[in-house]
Amino acid sequence: MTARIAELEKQLADTQQNLRLASSASTGTSRILENSSREPDAPLEDQLPNLVDAVGSLAINIHTEGGTKYYGSTSSSEYLSTLLPGDGTEGVIERLRDPKYLGVPEEILQLVYAFPLGIRDCPYDKSIFLPFFPPRDRAQELADLYFEMDAWQFTPVLRREIEEILNLIYGSSYPIIDSIHPHKLSVFFSIMAQGLAFSRETAASLVQEQYHSLACALVALEPITRGVTCSTVQSFYLIVRFLNTTVRTAAEDCWLIFGICVRVAQVMGLQYDGSAWNLEKEEIQRRRTLFWEIYTWSSWNAFIMGRPPSIYLEDTACKFPDNDADPAISGNELGFHAWKYRYTAACLPWTLKHAFSPGSVSYEVLMELDRKIRTFVIPSKLQVSLQGGEGLPWSSNARLAMQQCNCIFMKEANLLYLHRSFFAIALRDDPVNPLSHKFSPSVVASYRSARRMCVALRGLYLVHAEPLGRFWYFWSCIFSSCIVLSTLVYGSPGCSFAQEALMELNNAASFYEEGSVLCRPPKSMYVLAKLKRRAREAFTAFHAPGSSRGVTEPSPSDWDTCGDALGILGGAHGVVNHPTTAADSPGTSHSSGHSRSSQSPKAPQHFVLGPQTSYERARDPVPAEIPTDSMANQIPMQYDASMHGIQTTPMQSAYLSSLQSTSNNMMDQSMHHLGSLGYYEYGFGAPSDARVQVRPEFPGTPNAPNRQHIWKSFIEGLMDDAAA
User: Fold this and answer.
1) Helix 159-169 crosses helix 136-149 at what angle (to 10 degrees)?
2) Given this model, what pLDDT does residue 545 score?
3) Would you kindly state where each structural domain of the chain is located, as residue ranges?
4) By CB atoms within 10 Å of each CB, which of 48, 96, 225, 476 scores lowest?
5) Taking a C-beta distance cutoff of 8 angstroms, is the pair 168, 161 a contact?
């Protein structure tokens, strides 16, 4: 089997090479479809400088007879890290979650194992679930906890609906479920499980897994092929939400189950507005809310997984539901959920279209999308000042405060994942000064978004630390931000942002260690420790006394090295084999593929900018002091755009001034000068007197700006443990 896989990979590589060669020849053929006879809109040579490939990562596991897993270019780093060999804990986690250890009878076990399609001729009825219903007071407590702690972000079930279910079940002195559809009971148990997931009870994990299994079993009790209701859709949604909240290794489960959820919703016609069928007003609002929750989840999940979405907006005709019934939102201003739906509908379709174009995409299109995302207005009640002091504070209400933070993260995470590949290309092409590169807007955008998310979450953590520690969504974005910050320092230690990026990286990693302890993957702290060490060593070597401060560009062979799966965190381009399931130990060594100037000797000491993580304290118990006196003259703390001949128009300058007055004050002095980089000048290119001469490059050549390959190469260097 191994030999066969190797043979197929070789054939695939040969085929791809032939296609690249064919596309690079000046034959006038289209690069998207090499065999097409369609004439291009412009000469191929004129299009190539601004075109970048969009492929992704494919992992093949020989232990599952060629089982494969794909993540695209926009994938979140937490999902890309699953392509790396496991650390040995996955099997233990799965055994702990196995329903046979949860104390449910054999009949329910059979139903759980039949989820999601169910048993065709099921011999069981709902009575087997009666012993597992909690008392009324307990059920009400868990329902309230769910709506307080989780429904602020997603609302597939309205509060009045769960109250109706509670009244139906507990209408007498004991639970009565004869007249209640099994899928509605599944919604009930999912609410119970999710409420327990946010409780402070130390022994809640076993019971919440039991409730989750009961929810799955009740879906299987009434097969979805026989008929579906809104409760069916809600049940699938809540099951996915529970897995997403509690299991860090369930990304594929969530992806597949939510795909079924979308199909069930389409069977019901939720993609069309209920007013066309003269339904009751409450039912219309219920259907609208449910559809837009599904569309929002599906779109964001597709984006962070790097895969095509299940729903396309052009195939729908469903109106937005009425504005949030939120007492904190007054007048005609949009509430969080209403804003969330509109932002998703306005920005995500174009983001996904850009991310999944079957071939090359234009950088100018990306910058137009950047402007659209950045200028999308957040309601004033949901705005917050990131610079501290006077301004718009975080709400004292934890629910509203997390909605404030989520608005920031929805925009900044979107921008970060869009720009990071171009950011890496700029670092590769001009590691001495990436701000003079034609993709310099992506360098600024990636750095700015990473910092804004770190600053925002730290501000929220000071006000609402306890609830925030349970939401992996926020910490996942911090994890991705750390990767971008470390990439900047490692790839361009002489950049004017490098010192600040290293300080932010140290602070963010320590903050991540403290705040994410309840929800993070165990392997993530080890990954961050390696990232920090590699960035620190690169920065130290560059600024060491006697260093020539030169950074040599890696050779084409270095950029093309795939290694094991190191670099997957950055969106590797190619095929990754998993011959074993054992993870690399912390002491494992690999040869470095990102070489630096031989005239830059490695300094015996290292700089520690910011607090250390527990991994680093064990490794480096006595860190060296920072030579601040020498650093002051080596790192420019302000950036002068005039040195690169970059100018902005008066309209852009006015726009940048207004934008910076509300959002950029949280940056230190150097960040106040980012506006003069022409950051919002769409169609931005390298100026005529820039230090780097931009040359047209053909896709498929060693120097072609393949975004997955370049981003992967930087992370591969960061994850290199040769210095360990």
Assistant:
1) 170
2) 82
3) 104-321, 342-554+594-693
4) 225
5) no
Chain centre to alpha carbon of residue 468: 17
Is there a contact between 313 and 349 (Cβ–Cβ < 8 Å)?
yes
- Range 600-620 average pLDDT: 45
The dihedral sign for the CA sequence 326, 327, 332, 333: negative
What is the rounded CA–CA span in Å between residue 709 and residue 54? 10
CB-based contact 608:507 (threshold 8 Å): no
pLDDT in the model for residue 521: 82
In sequence order, what are the residues at sequence separation of 6 or more whose Cβ sits closer than 8 angstroms to the Cβ of residue 679? 441, 444, 445, 656
User: In the chain, pLDDT over 70 holds for what percent of residues?
Assistant: 59
**Residues 6+ away with beta carbon under 8 Å from 293:** 154, 155, 156, 237
Alpha helix positions (H), 430-561 = 440-463, 465-468, 472-491, 498-515, 524-543, 556-559
124-168 pLDDT, tens digit per residue, is 999 999 999 999 999 999 999 999 999 999 999 999 999 999 999
Cα-based distances in Å from 636 to 42, 393, 419, 630: 42, 32, 24, 12
Lowest mean pLDDT among 73-87, 479-493, 614-628, 647-661: 647-661
Q: Which residue has the tokens 């700089």?
A: 607
Q: Got the DSSP string for 299-357? A: HHHHHHHTS--S--GGG-B-PPPPPP--TTS-TT---HHHHHHHHHHHHHHHHHHHHT-
Total residue length of the chain = 724
Residue 466, classified by CB atoms within 10 Å of its CB into exposed (0-12), middle (13-18) or buried (19+), is exposed
Longest dimension (CA), the chain: 83
Residues 6+ apart with CB under 8 A from 294: 156, 233, 237, 261, 262, 265, 270, 311
Nearest to 140 by CA among 191, 190, 207, 175: 191
Q: What is the pLDDT of residue 634?
A: 31
Average pLDDT over residues 207-211: 94
CB 687: neighbour CB atoms within 10 A?
Answer: 17
Distance CA 507, CA 500 (A): 11
Q: What is the pLDDT of residues 572-600, one digit of tens each?
A: 444 545 544 444 444 443 333 343 433 34
Q: Two tokens at 349?
A: 């379709």
In the three-class reduction of DSSP (H, G, I as helix; E, B as strand; rest coil), residue 68 is classed as strand
Q: Which residue has the tokens 């609906």?
A: 161
Check residues 384 and 559 and name the one with the higher pLDDT.
Answer: 384
Which of 329, 325, 317 has the alpha carbon at shortest distance from 274? 317
Q: What is the pTM of this model?
A: 0.71
- Angstrom CA distances, 317 to 95, 117, 273, 292, 575, stand at 44, 28, 6, 11, 39
The confidence score (pLDDT) of residue 623 equals: 39
Whether the bond between 116 and the residue before it is cis, its omega within 30 degrees of 0, is yes
The more confident residue out of 360 and 276 is: 276
- In degrees and rounded to multiples of 5, residue 272 shows phi and psi of -115, 150
Looking at residue 645, the DSSP 8-state letter turns out to be T
